[in-house]
UniProtKB/TrEMBL annotation:
Keyword Hydrolase: yes
Name the record gives this protein: S8 family serine peptidase
TM region(s), chain numbering: 367-390
Signal peptide, first to last residue: 1-23
Biased composition (Basic and acidic residues): 330-345
Chain ranges of the Peptidase S8/S53 domain: 48-314
Record has Iron as a keyword: no
Span list, region Disordered: 330-355
Catalytic residue list: D57, H92, S266
Length: 402
């Protein structure tokens, strides 16, 4: 029997292999995403150079021609789940990595997949098996794999990741995962996670299940939109969702120089991780709360009232996010890295416990005092931004309830 707390799912609803394509067909298949995210304009400012994005997933093929030279293969936390000699699938992880940092191939890199941050580096950390791998049931039932995500997050932080992509989801969280998230944020690392693909499973009539690690405080939770830029039917909708990105018919790379098309909050998450990488490349010391603020403030297709549980603060726009980041960097000193508070240590004169803001339907927007105070050590403005963001969410929910 699978233990719910251990089951981690890849947040992609469907992956379909693409037959033989000419190189311009692949890039042409990305045109809608490139235009929606305003990447051509954003690339005039940043392409992610110098940033490392850790992809906590099923593994990344470092030899794919669109990723070659950009991937460092890190630790495999699933070791021992598959029978000896079993080669990892690495489909989902390669796909996500290509959306984040694919650099294409051929003359001037104009063939194949171009990622949101084509000059960024990828750290592959294997924390999940794909459904078809023979050790899948063992992985999701053996106690020794209970906290692989938590261990993977800490490992990625210690290996120098600037952004961590988590295109994975689970229904229940662990204390170790919560602590790992706090550790990462305290070190200035931006975490981006999938809101989940249970959008058609309603609870209490007005929102879909929460998914972890996306629902942890401080994590950028990403929903998926369809071709009409509305919430995709499968995308979870609840008050954890911060922003949204395209998640339907997304072209990406697969192992062995293959190409795939798929849909899910996985894909949307990878695209937003790429935008976060663009921001961190320009402003490496910008704290995670301010990166999240830039993503939200730079969003387009804003929902009525400025926020809703379907697409959060709107659809991410890379060019506008960079502009917002520039504004924040100009007026605010930010705490990150060695300047940030260590979340594993008590705060001077205060509690390290959570502060909960609860709406009438008991949905929570939780802000950890440890995270807020950590940012405040660098600048009081960072703290103000967090509470402004929370108040906006709370007002939006109360408006819905009225």
């Amino acid at each position: 029997m699978l233990r719910k707390s251990a089951v981690v799912a890849l947040a992609a609803v469907l992956l379909v292999p693409v037959g033989p394509l000419w190189a311009d067909d692949v890039r042409g298949g990305q045109r809608a995403v490139i235009e929606t995210l305003a990447l051509t304009k954003a690339w005039r400012t940043s392409k992610g150079a110098g940033v490392t994005v850790a992809v906590l997933d099923s593994g990344v093929d470092p030899h794919h021609r669109d990723l070659a030279g950009s991937v460092r293969v890190g630790k495999d936390f699933t070791a021992g789940a598959n029978p000896p000699g079993t080669a990892p699938s690495r489909l989902h992880g390669t796909y996500m990595a290509s959306l984040i940092a694919g650099h294409g191939h051929g003359p001037d890199g104009k063939r194949g997949i171009i990622g949101v941050a084509p000059e960024a580096d990828v750290l592959s950390v294997r924390v999940i098996l794909e459904d078809e791998e023979p050790g899948f049931l063992t992985f999701n039932s053996a106690e020794r794999f209970e906290n692989v995500v938590a261990r993977g997050i800490r490992y990625a932080v210690d290996e120098g990741a600037d952004v961590i992509n988590l295109s994975i989801s689970k229904e229940l969280a662990t204390r170790e995962e919560r602590a790992a998230v706090r550790y990462a944020i305290g070190k200035g690392v931006v975490l981006v996670a999938a809101a989940g693909n249970d959008g058609d499973r309603k609870k209490d009539g007005d929102f879909a299940p929460y998914s972890y690690p996306a629902a942890f405080p401080g994590v950028v939770s990403v929903g998926a939109t369809d071709r009409r830029m509305r919430r995709a039917a499968f995308s979870n909708w609840n008050s954890s969702v911060l922003v949204a990105a395209p998640g339907v018919d997304i072209m990406g790379a697969g192992p062995g120089d293959e190409y795939w098309v798929g849909r899910g909050t996985s894909q949307a998450t990878a695209l937003v991780s790429g935008v976060a990488a663009l921001i961190k490349a320009e402003y490496p010391k910008m704290s995670p709360p301010l990166v999240a603020r830039a993503l939200a403030a730079g969003a387009k297709d804003l929902p009525p009232g400025g926020y809703d549980t379907a697409t959060g603060f709107g659809l991410v726009n890379a060019a506008k996010a960079l502009k917002e980041a520039s504004r924040l960097a100009e007026h605010t000193e930010v705490a990150a890295g060695d300047q940030a508070h260590d979340p594993e240590r008590p705060l001077a004169g205060g509690s390290a416990g959570p502060i909960d803001v609860v709406t009438r339907d008991e949905r929570r927007v939780t802000v950890y005092a440890a995270i807020a105070a950590g940012a405040a050590l660098g600048a009081l403005t960072s703290l103000a931004v967090i509470f402004i963001l929370v108040r906006r969410v709370r007002r939006a929910h109360m408006s819905q309830d009225a």
